[in-house]
Amino acid sequence: MVVDTDRFLADLHALRRFGAFKTGVHRPTFSPQDMEARRWFVGRLREEGLEAEIDGIGNILGRSPKPGPHLLAGSHLESQNEAGWLDGALGCVAALHLARAGLPVDVAVFADEEGHYGSFIGSRSFTGLLEEAEIDRLANRYHDKPLREALREAGLEGRPRLQVERDRYKAFLEMHIEQGRQLETQGLGVGVVTGIVAIWQWRITIAGQQNHAGTTTMAERRDAGLTAVRLLAMIDEEFPRHCAERTVWTAGRIALSPGAPSIIPGGAEILFQYRDVDIDVLRRLEVVLRRCVAESNRRERCPAVLEAMSLSTPAVCDPALQDALAGAAESLAPKRWQRMPSGAGHDAQYLARVMPAAMLFVPSINGISHHWTEDTAEEDLALGMRVLAEGARRILQG
Ligand SMILES: [Zn+2]
To answer: Residue 23 C-alpha to ligand 1 middle, in angstroms?
Structure first.
């Protein structure tokens, strides 16, 4: 097995031309520049002897002519708006270079991981979790173009959607930038991902009494805004006593109604989420959250109602695959790697539902991602590629 890291980096840089924006890329799903990148990638897959096509949802599959057992590897090619050159592209090019190194690897590019039209439509389509009716319903979140129309303009209308052949694969591998700064701050080159966090999203609605901010005494008023602030402070004090090491929580939206300077808020709505990779931690925090809301209702004059909006399941990376990647990391970068959860969602979380899956992270400079300054040192990219290939070799042998 020979990994040509120079050619790997050259392919990454070649892909950077499509939708180039400052030092990053602007490659929204199914835009002309995105489709150009997809066609270029299909060409590269064919050059390496893979049988490649784009399917009816924009997914690309490059099939290896080698006898099995096979691995499946890949990521996504579109970007967020005015974003980085490596997010997604790295995992696609790395998968191509696993095949190029002579391993029996099929290469997958999943459409719209970045969610311009929906939520993981490519990997969900490939794993049988996307209905035609949802495709009918979806539209672009920035400019409202229906997904059907975008597919037609991209020349993909009427093509069949590829479905995963479960029996063909031993495992799925995705290499990705970390998009955080854990690896960088510890001076590490590689992260072996233990799992992809689940997001538990809640809505807390607080009912107060809308009234005049000048004439209503403090004793009389029922201020939903102050109740919201005190409840969030209580949650923020309680969560650290019950969370895990890498749990994160966010009140991403606090809306007061009517939201005017001289009106006591008659209502408050909080969108609150927390993330962890361990289902037991997620459940434990639900108990804490419910207790905080009950305590708030005991103390306050404005009742709060807690409502679950979405409770996803963490995707656990396969332990044997983790061990293979960890062994490869230790042999190529001794003491310069760690195991870590992924705080962001990835296509691997859907692939993990149909086959053992694993992910490998490389550092992000200053932890920046979803921005055009996103970058990773070339030696870290090359090291990650070599670790991934050695890990893949071990997985195929094991
Ligand atoms: Zn990504």
So the answer is: 17
